[in-house]
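Hi support team,

I've been running sequence recovery on a batch of backbones for a student project. Most finish fine, but this one hangs at about 90% for roughly twenty minutes before it completes. I'm not sure whether the input is malformed or the queue is just slow. I've pasted the structure tokens below so you can try to reproduce it. Let me know if you need the job ID as well.

Thanks,
M.K.
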């Protein structure tokens, strides 16, 4: 098990940027593939980005490709989501998730460790 704590959310104008962080507890962070998901009001949680445990394999949802960048620092037990050119439709609670395997997943049920979420609000 790994405990996850997200931070970095907030209110930003359209076109702005935010960087989310997800700090993981435990000494085996590098054994986990990591993902970011989001849930907008009235909608189901959806995949945003994922990264393999070594960082060599990365996936993005089409809706964020070219605007968001996922990265990780295994020495700091942290995964990041750099969000640029934000749009009002990016407004959601963003969740960090961990999966004890090499390959990152894009489906919610593939992850068994979740953070509490951080709110991102993009105003128009």
């Amino acid at each position: 098990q790994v405990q996850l704590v997200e931070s970095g959310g907030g209110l930003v104008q359209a076109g702005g940027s935010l960087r989310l962080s997800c700090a993981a507890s435990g000494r085996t962070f590098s054994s986990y593939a990591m993902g970011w998901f989001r849930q907008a009001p009235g909608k189901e949680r959806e995949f945003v980005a994922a990264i393999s445990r070594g960082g060599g394999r990365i996936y993005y949802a089409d809706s964020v490709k070219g605007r968001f960048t996922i990265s990780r620092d295994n020495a700091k037990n942290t995964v990041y989501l750099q969000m640029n050119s934000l749009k009002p439709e990016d407004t959601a609670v963003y969740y960090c998730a961990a999966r004890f395997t090499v390959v990152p997943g894009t489906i919610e049920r593939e992850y068994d460790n979740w953070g509490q979420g951080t709110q991102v609000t993009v105003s128009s």
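--
Follow-up from support: It reproduced on our side and the slowdown came from queue contention, not your input. The mean pLDDT is 96. No action needed from you.
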